[in-house]
TrEMBL record:
This is Membrane fusion protein, multidrug efflux system. One of its GO terms (molecular function) is efflux transmembrane transporter activity. One of its GO terms (cellular component) is efflux pump complex. The keyword Coiled coil applies.
Amino acid sequence: MNTRHPSLLLQLWLTGLLLLLPGLSLHAQQGVAVTLTEVRQQTFSQQLHASGTLRAWQSTDLRTQVSGRIVALHLPEGEWVEQGQLLVQLDDREARARLQQAEIHLREAERQLQRFNQLHQNQSISRDQLDAQQANVENARAQLLANQAEVERYRILAPFSGFLGQHQATPGMLLDSGSLITTLDDTRQMRIDFALSERHLPLLHTGLELQARSSSWPEQAFKGQVSFIGTRIDPTTRNLPLQARLDNSAGLLRPGMLVTLTLETASRQALVVPTRSLTFRGQEKAVFVVNEQGIAQRRIVEVGATRGEQAEILSGLKAGEQVVDQGVVKLRDGLRVRAAAPDEQV
């Protein structure tokens, strides 16, 4: 009886296999279960992403041009000041005295020139003497302009409208030439320097709209435009430098903030397929196109931009063709495929 048990088990196993073969054969004839999608043409625009640090559209350090003692101070920290507004006045008494001397010297030189003109008309002096006095007048005028400029250097005016920064200056403080007093930032508009790969150059132009987001205001998008496109590519990074201008009329942005940028390129009509339809072999990209007989054929395609789960197809496909969406990992060229049932795992 022991020798008959193995043969009985073998007979049962063979019987079960024969019962399963028709089902297996039918499954093979139907093909590999996949999901299909149609190659379609639609409006497509590519989003480019970058990040950078904000700067005020106009920004400067306010420094002294001469040494002097502060006699008047108009520096409200964090407040808005207008262009040309007097911010700091240094003691300029000595400079004004030199200016007054220059004015007196010029008036005397001009009076002497009038007298020399009369003498020359009476032929009492030579032409060379008259020309020499004319030169004295010109020198006196030049000296007056120099003294006027010197007096102006004792006054610090706002070069443009903006917000004043923090300072430590007080009336009576003695400052050296070149001393930093405070900062001035015009933040009504912000600028941001960033870079993109050189391959995006055909998509870029000045005026291209973008949106910026900051972690300080995560729910708010700040609108802006590309204001400058670099004239040179960085040979090390192969990146193109750009600059954008952002509207900050609400005053929410600050210089030094890190923001992320999204640039929306011009829309165009393009053929698209799901990105998961793509297969890769080295640098080669391909999709499986399914013909009318249900045979999957591997076809090499040229891929353009991608946006989310959609890939732009530049060549290799035609609108209306059926390609495999899910299930490409199970395929090879020439396999028969079938559309998976709604509840069937692919």
